[in-house]
Amino acid sequence: MESTSEVPDDSCQVADEAEKEALALKNFKETIAEIEGHLAHKAQLRSRIHTTVQNRPEESYFTRLDSSIKKNTAFVRKLKNFTEAQKESILKDMNTLNLTKYISEVANAIVEAKLKMTDIASILQVCVVLHEKYADFSAQILEAWQKVLSMKKDEKVSNPSKMRVDVRFYADLISCGVLTPKEGLPLLGSFLTNLIHGDKEEHNSATIILAFCKFCGEDYAGLVSQKLLSDAERFKLTVPTSTWLPPDKRQNVRNLLREYYSSLCKHLTQDHKELQNFERQNRRILQTKGELSNERKERQEVLNQSFAKLLNMTQQFSDILAEELPELRQDLSPKDEECSVLELSENMSDQARETLNELLWENEEGRQFYENLPNLGVYLPNLVPKVTAETLPLPDPAEQMIDIEKEAKEIEEGEQAKEEGDEDIKPTELEDEKEDADVPVSLQSNKVLLDSFLTTLSACVNREMIDSAAIEFSTNLNTKHNRKKLVRTLFTVQRTRLDLLPFYSRLVATLHPYIPEVATDLCNFLRQDFKYHVRKKDQINIETKVKIVRFIGELTKFGMYPRADTLQCFKQLLLNFAHHYIEMTCHLLETCGRFLLHQPDSHQRTKVYLDQMMRKKSMLASDSRYLTMIENAYYQVVPVDSSTRISHIKIRPPLHQYIRHLLYVELGNKGSTNKILKQLRKLNWKDPEVATYAIRCLTSAWKVKFPNIRTLAGVVAELTLYQEFVGHRIVDAVLEDIRWSLEFPISKFNQRRVSMAKYLAELYNYRMVESSVVFKVLYTCITFAVSYDRTIESELDQPDNLMRLRLVLTILDTCGVFFSSGLAKKRLDCYLVYLQYYYLFKRSLSIWTEDNPFPVAIDFGIKDTLLSLRPKLKPYKTVQEAADAVENLEKELMNKLSQAMPELQMDMVLADDTLACIEEEDIEEGEEMREVDDDSINDEQSLSRSMSQMTTRGEATQPDDESANTEDDHCVVKAPRKALCPEDDDFMAALDRMVAENIHEAYSRGKEASKAPAVDIAIPWQVKASLKKPSDGSDKNFLGDSIGGELGGALAAAEASSACAAVASSPPSTTNDNPTVNFFLMTRKGNKPQFKNLALPSDSELAQNLRNREEAEKAEKERVKKLTLDFNERQEEEEFQDLYGGANRPAVHNVNRDRRGRFQHPKGVPDAELIFGGARKNR
User: Fold this and answer.
1) In the β-sheet with 1051-1053, what is the strand arrangement from edge to edge?
2) What residues contact 1031, with CB distance under 8 A and at least 6 apart?
3) Which one, out of 113, 558, 709, 757, has a CA that is 20 to 30 A from the CA of 431?
4) Three-point CA angle 121, 122, 127, nearest 5°
5) What is the pLDDT of residue 796?
6) Is the separation of the CB atoms in 1080 and 1063 below 8 Å?
7) Residue 1084 has pLDDT above 50, yes or no
8) DSSP code of 954?
């Protein structure tokens, strides 16, 4: 198959080559035929004149013609203004007029006529007719030519353009036979000899000799062009030559022309050397002073134009005379060994050129965008390019030593000089679009097409669309009026659409070779507008200024805006390096700074200006935003040493690279979450090295795209179900990283800090951390190393550093919506008070002024957060209002704490000199007291952490002295403060879950599990009815129906009696003298029980045991009730979080849950639950 497919390709190539060869042969034969026809026409004219002269008409013929002066003088005037269109009328007049007496005037009129090259054939025909009729015509016209062509040795030609036509005209008169060679050749030879010998140095008359060679060289010198000779040799054919002149005379003319060509080659070589020397001097001046004077710029333009003109004529002479062009040697002066790799010679190797491309462009796609432009000549074959690409000479770094101090002095002097002409600069004024009412109907459709084209131009946001727009404009809309409207549209692009500037610049560069007016006008507008904004020195319209400099930068990279002018803009911005000029400089460097630095002709100047910019930056007393912008722009332009870059490259094992690929590349792709989770589960988690590296990658949330942090947290949550230690280590690392970022507030890690705060909040959403941990981080952000004293400035929380507010807003925006019920809601309410105080305190600092306002993003962020979390909350407006709210909140919490702390302290008082044993009951009682007022204590714990850092309102908030002092004189030993650590929090969380599960199981067993023990005896109803009435006015009987329902007190068994049981009838009744407790003693006599009243002292052992038992049972019941309520509330909160966060979480599912689906009835089978009323119907 391969051989059969290759044969047609080879045959097609052979056919194409044969077709090209046949076409070239055809063209060559047509050229040969044209030359033969020209030579035959000349020979025919000579023979015709020779025969006609011998048979001229007699005098009787002329007597019949018109000899009036009026018509003859009119005929002479017509000859002086001869054109090709008048040939027929002149020939007609010649047949009716008798010009015998006016032949001298006719000859002079023909010689003085201002002819064109296209008029030569027609005037020759007129001269031939005159020569055939009038015998004196040749003598008269020769006399007229002698007056014109006679010149001395060093005489200059006054009118070279007319002389070019005259020389050809005179030479054709000789070759056609009007003038015989014996009469005409001496004059022509003397003229050419004097002209060539007198013009060997300046070559001002080169165009005259070139015209003679083109049109008459074939007849007088036998010249054949180099192309015809090569084609004749190629096709083995001969080029016909004229045999009119003898060979010796043709050789003399050829030698004379070659002599002139050799002098022209020497002149070209000298001009080339002079141009190189002048460019070298200009480069030296540019690199030492930074700019050129206007005189030197004009001088260089003149030299370039003259050299280009001379080179063009030399090339034409070389082709006509079939001579070789002189070799123009480039300047090969020795290069400095310390020069940059950028200053390469023109003949650089492919590897060096690739290195230069890597430095010039960030990637291959960028290079293709700026260098590979569509060729409009393919679509417009008849359109001739008006601009030819010019290769700029490379600088000579060996002769350039840059003095940076001198450059700085030059900039300072230039600033004062430029200020004098500020009033002359005006903003760019665009011509108003005139709605012409008298536009022809044929142009209305063109106007509609142009408006549609300009409207859709802003939608061209890729390379293909903008190239299509360029082709459309050049093919259908290329008129002068449309070009002006296009330039106006490009220049007035919206200041916020900076994304369109590269594509508009590509459009201008694509049109430039064929429509250079667009690029020229646009660059002039941008140059004038830039000067206006720089000289204006106002602090408004920053977006417009940024648009102007970025547009200039994009056009510079396409080569439309001269690099020298761009560097001049850079210098103008450095003159007043402050405020908006700093931003304009940074945007200009970000756009084309790298391009300018790595271009050989602008490398040194850019280097000087960059050093000067960094020097000004070190002396700049500005805010950190400008300093950061300058550093970012500088390090984006300055290349990094490749050796240093390679030395920092880490060589990772394949497994590590695969883990990074999964988490940093694949994460976030559609449907990749489950795949990543499966691959991570396959890792060898028992290997410490693999596990450590995987956990480190899972912790580095700042290396993941910001929207994918939620997905990363979901992967960690699912992975923890299989590897429990992973979750603990990741949470510890995240908390440690956040703490480290607060202790070392380095600005370059701001993005990392925000990512880690977001990661912590997402981990809470996936139940990897508790709400208490999140609140600890939130309080740490606004309390750690924060100084609320305006006279003391904290090093870790600078007045202009608002990064902590950004962290808090990130956390609350991510997980704050879940703090909507229970204890978390109360904690968030308290925290928002402290957050508003911290925010308002930061906002009220003196660093924020009108010139340096408080960031609007923080204001709106705080307002949006409060509105989303607490829509009904009224934000505080002043710092004092927030401070009062904080004080009131602290007093309220201290009151709750003072009520709970005495009992807590009493339980925790230690013995004097003995070690007390641990009592479970006491601990439980302490837990009960803690659970009774859990809300206030937890809030107070957060408050106690924040109180140590805050010095609000000038003094620290202290608890009331009354609550600390006691009425007694004895000293109360307070329990030591509990040290909080993450391990205790994890333990308490696990304990709470276990207790909740046990309580749930106990309550699910039914009422039987909670009934009173079997030892209790029910009180007979007779005694119970009698006990409801008080026995006397002093003693009261109570039944404890609330405990157990049937048990009114406590029953105690008598130790001595065999069948007696003591039934407690009431709580102790007290009197003023002897407090007693009434008991009923139940005995059995036969089958009937008997009851006897028994009064015991209240301090007896039986009464004391009864009281302790009642209190223990009551406390236990309250504790169980509190745990049950907390469990229900927690369950409701978890269900709300699942419902709210289910829609926003990634599709990460636990494969071990909900495996069994609901039974689906097959088609046609009736649903029994709907018919007979099953459980679903009852629901």
Assistant:
1) 1051-1053, 1061-1064, 1076-1085, 1088-1097
2) 1037, 1078
3) 558
4) 95
5) 87
6) yes
7) yes
8) G
Distance CA 259, CA 926 (A): 121
Cβ-proximal residues to 902 (8 Å cutoff; 6+ apart), any chain: none
* pLDDT, tens only, 1128-1151: 888 877 777 776 665 455 544 444
- Judging by DSSP bridges, how do beta strands 1076-1085 and 1088-1097 pair with one another? antiparallel
Q: Are 219 and 244 in contact (CB under 8 A)?
A: yes
What mean pLDDT value characterizes the chain? 76
Distance CA 144, CA 55 (A): 26
CA-CA distance, 662 to 648, in Å (whole number)? 23
- Of 26-40, 591-605, 874-888, 919-933, where does mean pLDDT reach its minimum? 919-933
Residue with tokens 């709106």: 860
pTM above 0.85, yes or no: no
Q: Residue 930 — very low, low, confident or very high, per pLDDT cuts 50/70/90?
A: very low
Residue type, 282: N
Which amino acid would we find at residue 183?
Answer: E
For the chain, the residue count is 1179
- Pairwise CA distance, residues 164 & 331, whole Å: 37
Q: How far apart are CA 660 and CA 642, in angstroms?
A: 24
Helices (H), 787-852: 803-815, 822-843
Query: Within 13 A of 1013's CA, how many CA atoms are on the CB side?
Result: 5
**Does residue 439 register a pLDDT over 60?**
no
Whether residue 783 contacts residue 945, with contact meaning beta carbons closer than 8 Å, is answered with yes
% of the chain beyond a pLDDT of 70: 73
State the Cα–Cα distance between residues 338 and 985, nearest whole angstrom: 64
Is the pLDDT score of 1005 beyond 90? no
What token pair was written down for 64? 């019949």
Report the distance separating Cα 851 and Cα 720, nearest Å. 51
134: Cβ contacts below 8 Å, ≥ 6 apart: 56, 99, 100, 103
Closest to 259 measured CA to CA, from 207, 310, 203, 315: 203
Taking the C-alpha atoms of residue 382 and residue 389, their distance in angstroms, rounded to an integer, is 19
3-state SS assignment for residue 1090: strand
Domains of the chain: 351-377+448-637 (1.25.40.180), 654-752 (1.25.40.180), 770-897 (1.25.40.180)
The mean pLDDT value for 845-866 works out to: 88
Q: Classify each residue of 989-1027 as buried b or exposed e, where b means 16 or more C-beta atoms within 10 Å of its C-beta.
A: eeeeeeebeebeeeeeeeeeeeeeeeeeeebeeeebeeb
* Residue found under tokens 């504790």: 1119
Span 22-45, mean pLDDT?
81
User: Which tokens in the block code for residue 654?
Assistant: 């394949």
Torsion of CA 774, 777, 778, 780, to 10 degrees: 160
Percent of the chain, pLDDT > 90? Answer: 18
pLDDT at 667 over 60: yes
Q: Are 317 and 261 in contact (CB under 8 A)?
A: yes
Token digits of residue 619: 């002396």
Residue that the structure tokens 């006719």 belong to = 106
End-to-end CA distance of the chain: 75
At residue 964, does pLDDT exceed 50? no
Q: CA 175, CA 41: separation in Å to the nearest integer?
A: 11
Distance in angstroms (rounded) separating the CA atoms of residues 779 and 783: 6
pLDDT of residue 395: 43
pLDDT of 763 > 90? The answer is: yes
Bigger pLDDT: 507 vs 430: 507
Burial group, residue 870, by CB count within 10 angstroms (0-12, 13-18, 19+): middle
pLDDT, residue 1064, reads 40
Distance CA 433, CA 959 (A): 78
Per residue in 684-741, pLDDT tens?
999 999 999 999 999 999 999 999 999 999 999 999 999 999 999 999 999 999 999 9
